[in-house]
Amino acid sequence: MGFNYDEFFSSVSKIMKKSVIRELLKLTEKPEIISFAGGLPAPETFPVNDLIPIINKLIEREGAKILQYGATEGYGELRKLLTERISKQMKMPLTVNNLLVVSASQQALDIVGKIFIDPGDKIITERPSYLGGLSAFNSYKANIIGVTLEDDGICIKELEETLDTLYNKRAERIKFFYTIPDFQNPAGVTTSLEKRKKIVELANKYDFLIIEDLPYRELRYEGVTLPTLYELDGGKRVISLYTFSKIFCPGLRLGWIVAPEEVINKVIIAKQAMDLCTPPFNQAIAAAYIKEGLLEERIRKNIEIYSKKRKFMLEILDKYLGGIEEVKWTKPEGGLFLWMTLPDYIDCDELFYKAIENNVAYVIGSAFYPEYPEKNHFRMNFSYPSFDQIEEGVKRLSKVIKDSIK
Ligand code: PMP
């Protein structure tokens, strides 16, 4: 007799959707396919040789300590180093009680969902937004409202109208606004200073929280660094999520949350039920790496590598698709992605299969919409492919696009 798990699975597990991206990525695995689909850092940025002596030394000298369970808040030394680093960057006097180490920002997103979202609670995100964030909030049964993302951040007019309708006409509220202000995933756009200030002003006016997700913040290739929302708000109603994944290496699964102490205390309790602590071994490696001054050097090198790839991809896109009026793409000042827009009669979900037939892949844009997906976009990653792959891949893609333009 077969066994039916359906009566055992929770209602939340039933609303969880299989990631479309994961399913489509399986199709991109053939070696002949040039993929712009993943969001992976370039493997040449991983400091393998620097880490061998660091890890050997750690194991010899502190093996018993770092193989033990650790504090939920984080490995003391790393927590201190990160607090100093962020305090300096933000020019704000943070204490270690404002910072907690997590198992990278995906865990932070889950924790945010866990501590703030009751089933049916409304939240606002940019549309499009990071798929992993949407999935995390969906799993706590959030009611996600998407507001259009423009070239300089969220559309403030639409945000104000949405808030006005909710608060003044329907007597409802939102719990938080989730944003990726620097080099957004998937669109690659950066929220302007003016919009950042306006968002903080609206959060105060309408009394909601802001979750700012900052995985790409330190990967800026041109322009000036803008203040975080945390700084603009003075550390009251903003929670900032950071990660080592794109500036060091994702395999260590390390990130950190910066927030008012009251929030950090809740995060500790939530995290205890998830994994007790982030691996002390990994945290000790990161602490030693920072102490030797290698992180700043690593970030400089990553910027050098990625800014060249970004520049090259923009040049190649211009070469093969420039001059076609209906085809547009964002010009990110940092990060790992750019966002393509095709004429609205082209369905990029369908075009994906044609791209695969031509041995090139992207991520369908529709996957990044909390609701009412737009189908004429896709995301391109420029950090992982080599220069040759960028040229050949864009050439293949341009053929597929040109063939579908009426
Ligand atoms: N937030 C955003 C916006 C991301 O793009 C990613 C990774 N692609 C994450 C969070 C999760 O990254 P990690 O868990 O590796 O820190």
Describe this structure in words.
The protein has helices at 11-15, 20-27, 48-66, 76-90, 104-116, 131-138, 156-169, 193-206, 229-233, 261-275, 280-291, 294-321, 348-357, 387-404, and strands spanning 34-35, 99-102, 122-127, 143-150, 153-154, 174-179, 209-213, 238-243, 255-258, 328-329, 337-341, 360-361, 363-364, 377-381. The protein is 45% helix and 15% strand. Helix 8 (193-206) links the parallel strand 6 and strand 7 (209-213). With 406 residues, the protein is α/β, with parallel strands linked by helices. The radius of gyration is 22 Å and the shape is globular. Bound molecules: 4'-deoxy-4'-aminopyridoxal-5'-phosphate. 4'-deoxy-4'-aminopyridoxal-5'-phosphate (PMP) is lined by residues 39, 104-106, 130, 132, 180, 185, 213, 215, 243, 245, 250, 255. 4'-deoxy-4'-aminopyridoxal-5'-phosphate is lined by residues 39, 104-106, 130, 132, 180, 185, 213, 215, 243, 245, 250, 255.
